[in-house]
Specification:
GO molecular function: ubiquitin protein ligase activity; zinc ion binding
CATH topology of the domain at 60-118: Herpes Virus-1
Largest sheet: 2 strands, antiparallel
Helix content: under 10%
Structural class: little secondary structure
Domain PHD-type: 50-116
Order of helices and strands: HEEH
CATH class of the domain at 60-118: Alpha Beta
Radius of gyration: 37 Å
Shape: flat
CATH architecture of the domain at 60-118: 2-Layer Sandwich
CATH superfamily of the domain at 60-118: Zinc/RING finger domain, C3HC4 (zinc finger)
Protein name: Jg21001 protein
Keywords: Metal-binding, Zinc, Zinc-finger
Number of strands: 2
Pfam families: PHD
Length: 186
């Protein structure tokens, strides 16, 4: 039965990974015996080791790329599985291309994590390619207000504070060029 309405669950299979513990009936303190107190004082046995792989539940017979070989998904020969020092994926020595004969002593990286030494720039060394000066640009700036130069003549002083004459309250600041043009015309 499941839920507050106690809906019966017919033809339901439960996949048991370790053990199922039943809910014990409460025993009043006055009815507890010495044997019962000794049994509840000892914690129930724990699993020998926690489940590490949540995908396969550490099932040795089930292929899994997370806890086995990333190429063949096999878990056989655990002594010949090498871990990438970058991504922590495991690989059989025989599944690698080219296959390794022995586990290397130094750091080892898989083909996806391995970097070409020619692509790495040493600290303090400059890149071989120089940036362009940027004097010739082909970018179309459009007619936006961001590219408008600062006008030299303005009816408003630079240190003006307060409402701008001719500008209604609530008008948006994006119309500021219209105000400057308005002052230049009048």
């Amino acid at each position: 039965y499941l839920g507050s309405e106690s809906v019966p669950q017919n033809n339901t299979n439960i996949l048991v990974k370790d053990k199922i513990f039943t809910i014990e009936e409460p025993v009043p303190l006055s009815e507890r015996s010495e044997a019962y107190i000794k049994t509840i004082a000892v914690a129930p046995p724990k699993r020998s080791q926690p489940i590490i792989c949540k995908k396969c539940g550490d099932d040795e017979s089930r292929p899994c790329k997370r806890c086995g070989c990333y190429i063949c998904a096999g878990k056989d020969l655990p002594g010949e599985i090498i871990l990438c020092d970058e991504c922590d994926n495991g690989f059989h020595l025989k599944c690698l291309k080219p296959p390794l004969i022995a586990i290397p002593e130094e750091d080892w990286y898989c083909n996806t994590c391995k970097r070409d030494p020619n692509d790495v720039i040493a600290p303090g060394a400059a890149r071989q390619t120089k940036k362009t000066t940027g004097s010739e640009t082909t970018r179309d700036w459009g007619r936006g207000m961001a590219c408008v130069g600062k006008t030299k003549d303005s009816a408003m002083p630079a240190d003006h504070f307060g409402p701008i004459p001719g500008m209604e309250v609530g008008m948006m600041w994006r119309y500021r060029m219209q105000v400057i043009v308005y002052f230049l015309i009048f």
